[in-house]
Amino acid sequence: MFHKIVLAIDTEDDDEAKRTLAEGVRLLAEGGELHLASVFSSGGAGFFPHVSDDTPEDREKVVRNKLNLLARKYLPMNQAAHLHVMCGTPSEKLVALAAQAEVDLLLLVSRGPGGLWPLRRATVEYVTVNAPCAVLVMPFVAVAQSVEASSNPSGNEEAEENR
Three-class SS of residue 153? Predict the structure, then answer.
């Protein structure tokens, strides 16, 4: 069990957030501290990234509201959590938060090259090499895969087709 845990949360992926929060609560020692972190980019993704309708403050407010909603939705009623919304490079911000909060564990989900969180693969690699604490990287589970697995717990599709 861990006494202080940082959970890296992608506020755009409800299913991933639910799994991450559940695992964090499971690993947290009684009376431990849970820190939920989400990192956003201040620049736009378009051709002119410096031209955006949203200010960094507006973007932070949106991300903080989503993170707060996920916490209220998926954390047990008696579980408090510190919310951290940061602007910048996810890998650097997560490692800095882990050091600042003196956590025992940093938990994040690996999605590979196609994820919604920019540079997810690079983020996971940087965090695992540079974090001042233990790092748990949970595998990404696609929603279609998880629905299929729950409807066919044996995992034997061929046997299912023959019925």
Answer: coil
